[in-house]
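User: Run a structure prediction on this.
Assistant: Running it now.
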Amino acid sequence: MDKKNSVFIATSLDGYIADKNGGIDWLHSIPNPNNDDMGYVKFTNVIDALVMGRTTFETVCGFDVDWPYNKPVFVLSNTLNKIPDSYKEKAFLVKGTLTEILEPIYEKGYHRLYIDGGTTIRNFLKADLIDEMVITTIPILLGGGSPLFSELPKKLKFELIKTKTFLNQVVQNHYKRKR
């Protein structure tokens, strides 16, 4: 089976995924009366597992909701020593370089991975390990915060697969890595 590492994320117009305080409440700045998931469920239905960083994992654990994933979550961290007991069998700690952590994940049969979290996404891009990105742009300028992108060792070309508009204001672009 083909391996595919995908990103599905929202950014501000100025390219941030969290505000200066790490907040993401601005994601709900556009009224969404019908709770349109903007393709998220369809996207998660075709992935096998998630790979996220410790910060994203801790943010999700801090939400006042039940565990939101029905797929295995691999948490990348060099500082975390163990997954909290309440998330055992749901989340798994992985340490090492991206190549070192990906092989055992693939060997377990997880080939289509959802890559989540700013630092994790930036590191996967630096290693040229992202195959597709679905980026939803919220029409707000945050003026600072956590950027989705950072400096790369080389240019990475992507091609636009499709664009959709939601709620007459939110634009979602689906890109595929051109190799």
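Residues 87 and 104 are 20 Å apart (CA to CA).
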